[in-house]
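Hi again,

Forgot to attach this to my earlier email, sorry! This is the prediction with iron/sulfur cluster bound. I've pasted everything inline since the attachment limit keeps bouncing my files.
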Amino acid sequence: MSTLLQRKMSAPLDEAALMEEILARKAALGQELLILTHHYQRQEIVSLGDARGDSFALSRKAADSGKARFIVFCGVHFMAESAAILAQPHQTVQIPDPQAGCLMADMVDLDLVSMAWEELSEIVGPGMISPIVYMNSDASLKAFCGRHGGAVCTSANARIALPWGLAQREKVFFFPDQHLGRNTARLLGLGPEDLIVWDPEQPLGGNRPDDIRRARLILWDGHCHVHTRFTVEHVLRRRQEFPGAKVVVHPECTEEVVALADACGSTDFIVEYVRQAEPGATVVVGTEINLVARLALEYPDRQVLDLHYSLCPNMFKINPAKLLATLENLGEVNVVNVPEDIKSEARLALDRMLALKL
Ligand code: SF4
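Structure tokens for the complex follow:
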């Protein structure tokens, strides 16, 4: 009888016993096991991880982790899928809950992107567009970019990946997060006249042919509901409550919120921003609540506040009980498999990203 079945038939472990059991299994497996945890995971999970970071840092870690036979990815599904694409043949990648998806990633799929690509190519001609896909996407879209000379990017390297794409070809087609695309375009000095948004429900994405010919950047009409929850009013209220506070936000926020912030960057950037704040400083953070709460715990000598409460329900699906169930069934349950043909083309796009100099 499996340990999992035995557990179901007996009383569930309490939190402390769960943590103890996980730590014991980690100690027994040593370097054979690598637990990767995203910044948005709850504190208990992060405390059990071997490495924590944003999706860029964790994808690098996965690519460099030759010693581990088992990689357990505590994050959402597209992240574990990227780790599986970058993993070596002797490695198995598992996710404690395969239902931990991403609503933004679900706003786009291969059929929709392929239709848009055909329509765009008919108007601007073949070979004029670099496709760049945000890490927050299905593996089939990463493979699409690999096949068409494009790359993957994360919020940590979008400001390098988009110019790279524009240097290869006249235009970049970026999906699925329009806000990361728009905020990055602003950093690069592109104006509103250089951008169009592609709404997959409209003919030509809701654009006129001339607008498509003129655009440098074509942005998919997608967003992260965790970060678009932050509003201008939230920033103004916090500034009124805490004059002198610094506001740092994630680039998946709207451009109006980013424009009012003191700084904007990936989750790793935000962690570093708080670390570098002076003791006694107040920092207001516009990103997922688990990261904000942990920063507040880790830096008690400065005041770290949320811009507004915003939780990613998918990240929160991972908990110690599910992690332990995965560790009890290493190599067997919730294994993340990517078909070989998709894997090789997606890997091309991920490798192009990893080769970009930050
Ligand atoms: S925070 Fe947003 S982009 Fe990240 S996993 Fe959650 S829904 Fe997806």
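Residues 76, 102-104, 136, 224, 226, 288, 312, 314-315 surround iron/sulfur cluster (CB under 6 Å). The chain has a mean pLDDT of 94.

That should be everything now.

G.
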